[in-house]
Design goal:
about 400 residues, seven-stranded mixed beta sheet, 10 helices, 21 strands
Length: about 400
């Protein structure tokens, strides 16, 4: 059997990259637009002799963290193994090459991805760090009479004028919500507001703008014997105030042809549910969102701020990235800033690197992991204090795929 080798790709190999990825995901030519965001220098390939058989790349946005800070992120994307070459350790080689190069180069201390299958990436230290809701609300659903709606109008704008507004507005609120990603012009065009029909039959994006927010949505045509029954698919909804948020939702629900408003990447604590006169009218199904991986534990834990003071020692296991393994002291001061250092002191909590990834953005708690049997016989007081420190007021949420 020919030895497998992994290395960084060259620009001339990107066509081969997409051939492998299309084959792995049974795609045709749906990826033309994605060529604009992949960089060969951030892409790895596994070769069987001269044949490229496995690929993985990463984007380089910044990730909003709890407390209004942010961190460079390795946004892992377009991972695939050519059919006929599976069960040979190709994916393991890709993940090792990617994570080890980030560590050796001092790159992003955190990595994230969306998992095509839930049983794959835990082997490499990833864990579910955020959740999202597949949300649906019938058109014209009434709000509670006490809801305060910003009276300033929501107006539909053409693509050019709308993008000029959202490009200015989004950075003003980007860091207010852990899990959001920074964007350059290419990211807007490819990941958020691509000017093409949606993959599931939705139309091109439409833009509705309020002085304190905006919504990007795609209509899906629908007609019945009783009349129009369109579905509006929310791509993104961003608001700076609760009143603007209510105004944007009221606008969507009152579109004349809309029988239903759907949002497949809503937050698990999406406030619209609390606006409805009858909350049961909102259909909700929770699924996993971002899978996180702490590449360099110490740099990652220092990057965010915390909700309560803490002084604890963690005994960390990390079989895939051994530089993270060992005993670490995490000290958080009254302002939520952290110091992280090696220590020989006795550990209060024994955790795997996947446990730290789970709680990193506040999407899970140490106490919750312990109830699930993840942390063994942990000290209840240590669990409680660590859970409070890592907690966030708002659930972390990423509105976009990559």
């Amino acid at each position: 059997m020919t030895d497998l080798t992994a290395r960084t790709l060259q620009d001339s190999e990107l066509d081969d990259y997409f051939d492998v990825f299309r084959a792995a995901f049974l795609l045709d030519d749906e990826l033309r637009h994605f060529r604009n965001v992949l960089d060969a220098g951030r892409s790895h390939g596994v070769f069987d002799g001269d044949e490229l058989i496995g690929v993985a790349s990463r984007l380089a946005p910044r990730l909003a963290l709890p407390g209004g800070t942010s961190s460079p992120l390795a946004a892992v994307t377009a991972v695939g193994v050519r059919p006929g070459h599976r069960r040979r350790g190709v994916l393991t080689r890709l993940m090792r090459a990617q994570l080890h190069s980030l560590h050796e180069d001092g790159g992003a201390p955190v990595a994230a991805l969306y998992a095509s299958e839930g049983g794959i990436y835990g082997r490499f230290g990833y864990a579910v760090g955020t959740y999202e809701t597949k949300l649906s609300v019938p058109g014209r659903t009434p709000f509670k009479s006490t809801v305060d709606i910003d009276p300033r109008p929501v107006r539909e704008l053409g693509r050019e004028a709308a993008l000029e507004f959202v490009h200015r507005f989004y950075p003003t609120v980007e860091r207010d919500h852990a899990g959001r990603l920074s964007r350059d012009d290419t990211a807007w065009e490819v990941r958020v507001a691509a000017d093409r029909p949606g993959d599931a039959g939705e139309g091109k994006p439409r833009f509705a703008v309020h002085p304190d927010g905006y919504v990007i949505y795609r209509p899906e045509k629908g007609w019945t014997d009783r009349g129009p029954d369109f579905k509006l698919h929310v791509q993104e909804l961003v608001a700076a105030t609760p009143r603007a948020y209510a105004a944007l939702w009221r606008y969507l629900l009152d579109v004349d042809f809309a029988g239903e408003v759907r949002w497949d990447k809503a937050a698990i604590d999406e406030p619209v549910v609390h606006l409805l006169a009858n909350p049961r009218t909102a259909g909700r199904r929770v699924v996993d969102g971002l899978w996180l991986r702490l590449v360099d534990l110490d740099r990652a834990l220092r990057a965010r701020t915390y909700s309560a003071p803490l002084d604890t020692v963690l005994e960390v296991t990390d079989a895939f990235c051994p530089w993270n393994a060992g005993r670490w002291r995490l000290r958080v001061d009254d302002d939520g800033n952290a110091e992280v250092s090696r220590t020989e002191d006795a550990a209060a909590l024994d955790v795997d690197i996947t446990d730290l990834a789970s709680v990193y953005l506040g999407g899970n708690t140490f106490a919750g992991l312990a109830r699930g049997g993840r942390l063994g016989d942990a000290d209840p007081d240590a669990l409680r204090r660590a859970s409070r420190a890592f907690a966030t007021d708002v659930a972390p949420h990423c509105q976009e795929g990559f």
